[in-house]
Amino acid sequence: MVLRRSLAVAGAAGAVGLSFLGLIAVGTYVAAGPAVAGGVPALAPGTVPAAYQGLIQKWGTLCPELSPPLLAAQLYQESGFNPTAVSPAHAYGIAQFIQPTWESHGVDGNGDGRKDIWDPADAIPSAASYDCSLARDTRNVPGDKVANMLAAYNAGPYRVIQYGGVPPYAETQGYVKRIRSLSISFTAATSPVAYSAQASGAIYFAQTKLGTPYFWGGEGLPSQGGRFDCSGLTRAAYATVGITLPRVANDQWYAGEHPSRDQLRPGDLVFFAHDLNDPRTIHHVGIYVGGGYMINAPHTGAVIRYDRIDAPDYIGATRVTSDGAAALPARGSDGTIANGSGIAADPSGAS
Questions:
Q1: 295-316 pLDDT, tens per residue?
Q2: How far is residue 194's CA from residue 316's CA, in Å, rounded to a whole number?
Q3: How far apart are the C-alpha atoms of 227 and 317, rounded to whole Å?
Q4: 181-219 confidence digits (pLDDT tens)
Q5: 330: exposed, middle or buried (Cβ count in 10 Å: 0-12, 13-18, 19+)
Q6: In the predicted structure, residue 339 carries a pLDDT above the cut 90
Q7: Of 6, 1, 149, 122, nearest to 65 (Cα)?
Q8: Partner of 152 for a Cys bridge, out of 15, 17, 134, 338, CB 3.0 to 4.6 A?
Q9: What whole-number distance in Å separates Cα of residue 246 and Cα of residue 253?
Q10: End-to-end CA distance of the chain
Q11: CA 224, CA 218: separation in Å to the nearest integer?
C-alpha cells in the first residue's frame, strides 16, 4: 500500500525420465542481463497486462531512480494489477492509494481534466510521480538511491533521512528487498537466464507422482488421497527443495526470470493462458523436463503425466529462484493481495 496509513504420452514416458536430471547438470548459464532501451530496463514479455504495458513503460522512466520493471513490481505487489482492488485499510485501485494521499499526490495522467483513483491512466502515473517525489525528498541521503526511495515509500522520507538510509525496521527492509527481487521477474533479459540449482529436486518429486489421478484443488494431502492439481503439484515439487511458491499458477509466474523458448531448461515452470497478452488469465502450469515435454497434472479424469508444451495457449516460462518466490505477495482468502507494502509509518514522519 502506498505510504498512506498509520503505522499422457506413453512414448514420451519412455523417452523422458530420470535421464533429464543429467541434462540439468550439464552447463550453467551465465547470469542474465536486463534488456535496456536507451539505458532503461525493458519489461519482460507477458509479465504486464497489455492494457497497462504502455503506461508502465512510459511512466517508469519519470526519474532516474525508477524503471518500468520496478514500477510494475510495485503495482503487482499492491494489487496484482487489479484496478478495482480495495484493501481493508480503504486503499483503492491498481496502485492502492488511500484518499488523503491521493488528494495530495494524485495526478491527471491522461489529461481529461480530473484525477480518478480508479483509473489506471491516472493511478499509474500517480504512483510513478509519488515514487519520484520520494526520491527527491531523500536525494541527499547517502547510499543506494533506489533503496532509499523504496524505503521512503514504505516508512516515510523522514525516517530515511533520520537513519541516513534504509531504516532498521524489519518490515521496511523486507519491503525494499521484495520489490527489488520481484522487479527481476519483470525485467526482460538479453542474455541466458541463470540456471536454477533446485531444479533437479523439483523434477525428481514430480516424477514420483506420475500416474497419480488429478484432483481439482489438490495439494497432495492425505485427505485428498495424495492427489494434485497443476499448481498444487508444482508448489509441492519446489517445497521439497526449500522454495515456497504461491498456490495458484498466475502467481507462480512471477517467481523468477523468464527464459525464452529456446533457453528452457529442466525444472522451469511452463505456463498457459487464455489471453497471451494478459498474464492474469494464466490457467495452467507444468514442470519442464526437456525435449519439449513437461510433467503436469492436466485435468479431471486424467493422471499426472508427460505432455508436450507446444500449444497455442503457451505464454512462457519461469526459472524459479528462492528470492523470486520469497518476494511474491500473499493473497487473502478472497484472492486479493494481502500484504501489499505492509504497515507504513505516518506520512508526517511523526510516529
A1: 999 999 999 999 999 999 999 9
A2: 16
A3: 24
A4: 999 999 998 677 777 778 889 999 999 999 999 999 999
A5: exposed
A6: no
A7: 149
A8: 134
A9: 9
A10: 18
A11: 6
Q: Which of 65, 78, 219, 257 is catalytic?
A: 78
3-state secondary structure the chain: CCCCCCCCCHHHHHHCCCHHHHHHHCCCCCCCCECEECCEECECCCCCCHHHHHHHHHHCCCCCCCCHHHHHHHHHHHHCCCCCCECCCCCECCCCECHHHHHHHCCCCCCCCCCCCCCHHHHHHHHHHHHHHHHHHCCCCCCCHHHHHHHHHHHCHHHHHHHCCCCCCHHHHHHHHHHHHHHHHCECECCCCCCCCCHHHHHHHHHHCCCCEECCCCECCHHHCCCECHHHHHHHHHHCCCCCCCCCHHHHCCCEECCCHHHCCCCCEEEEECCCCCHHHEEEEEEEEECCEEEECCCCCCECEEEECCCCCEEEEEEECHHHHHCCCCECCCCCECCCCCCCCCCCCCC
* Nearest alpha carbon to residue 116 among 95, 145, 142, 144: 95
Which residue bears the cell 489421478?
213
Active site residue 78: yes
* Nearest in space to 80 (alpha carbons), one of 62, 65, 94: 94
- Contact (CB, 8 A) for 131 and 155: no
pTM for the predicted model, two decimal places: 0.81
Report the C-alpha gap between 40 and 67 in whole angstroms.
7
Predicted confidence (pLDDT) at residue 342 exceeds the cutoff of 60: no
Task: List pLDDT tens digits, range 144-157.
Answer: 999 999 999 999 99
Query: Do residues 58 and 42 make contact, with C-beta atoms less than 8 angstroms apart?
Result: no
The whole-angstrom separation of Cα 279 and Cα 287 is 18
Length of the chain as a residue count: 351
What's the gap between Cα 298 and its chain centre?
24
